[in-house]
Design a protein that fits this description.
Blueprint lengths: L1 E11 L2 E6 L6 H8 L8 H5 L7 H17 L2 E6 L2 E6 L15 E5 L4 H12 L3 E6 L2 H10 L8 E4 L7 H7 L5 E6 L17 H17 L3 E8 L23 H25 L5 E5 L19 H9 L3 H4 L1 H8 L7 E3 L11 E2 L9 H17 L4
Parallel strand pairs: 5-6, 5-8, 6-7, 8-9, 9-10, 10-11
Antiparallel strand pairs: 1-2, 1-4, 3-4, 11-12
Helix pairs in contact: 3-4, 6-7, 7-8, 7-12, 8-12
Length: 381
Amino acid sequence: MQLVEAVRGDRGEDGISVTEVTERRTMADADAARELPHRHRLLPLLDQERAPFSHQLLTQRSMVIGACLLCHPVSVDVDNNVATVYIGGMDDTRAGKAPTNETVIITGGTSGIGRATAIALAESGSRIILAVRNQEKGRAVAATLPGAPGMHRVLPLDLARLETVPDFADRIDEPIAVLVNNAGVESKDLQRTADGHELQFGTNHLGHFLLTTLLLPHITDRVVTVASQAERMARLDLDDLDWHRRPYHASRAYADSKLANLLFTSELDRRLQTSGSRVRALAAHPGLVKTAIYERPAGQRPNLWDRLVPILGQEPEDGALPSLLAASADLPGGTFVGPQRMMHMRGGAEVISQSKQARNPETAARLWSISERMTAAGTHP
């Protein structure tokens, strides 16, 4: 085994949550960490600068990532509150691998990060099920994915209409290696789902919560949920999750939904470990990515953020790298993966830290119970 990166693990009663070894208070600290000699193995591949996008580039990158992870799975060893990541063979019942010749479900795979994730995993040999609202777009994407004709499936799913989730789950009749909860929305004003929930919380969290719990009997390896470092700006009000009593703040509501994604991941993995399951739950932060989620309606005046995204944002295939690492590497459940550079906003993929509130087990357990009630009865708590 070859040492590739050291990180700190916070040991709790229910297991290990892996975070970075330090908060990397200075750029010098970050640069020094990146100069470690192990980088010539896996991380240079994830760390390479953005080249002009082409299908050939993404194909090349995904093939090498898949081969690297298959031959040298990343593993994490925890000792005395220090978790060390290695590259090398591991005989571990929870060991990670690229899901070759296995089925992967991806929500929201018709564009952006979801599409890039689907292409990369299909290139590694995965059979992809695209869970999408627009089946026509889904079929167009499926037709371009690597693999034999008819290998990939497209099934209807609208996370903002909870009644569609059980219908989708009922159509799954095979083992699912990886579920990638990728779909997400961002809204600038208060909107509600078909079930009356605040749109961002309802789609980004509740829809995926219900989908995951219904699909768990089929999942054999892991659940990867796309979250965001926006969770650090969240002020999750468990007594008013649907914004019925508070003045509405769109950016705060989005951050709340991303915090909910991390709390869900933490509680899901705790429950899986308690039950003795080999399935694990991880989360991924794609960074700043130029995708349709940032597009404003015609005629709406752009703000400063809208002007910065086209300049500072990375392409979807780079934003997909944290999801790909979380879907393939041998990392403990509860791990949060994100970009390496620019305060984890772009470039490569590595284990990153979560906020204190995202690591609160009491909040995670309470949110789970509330989410069960909201998805079962379609009412707010």
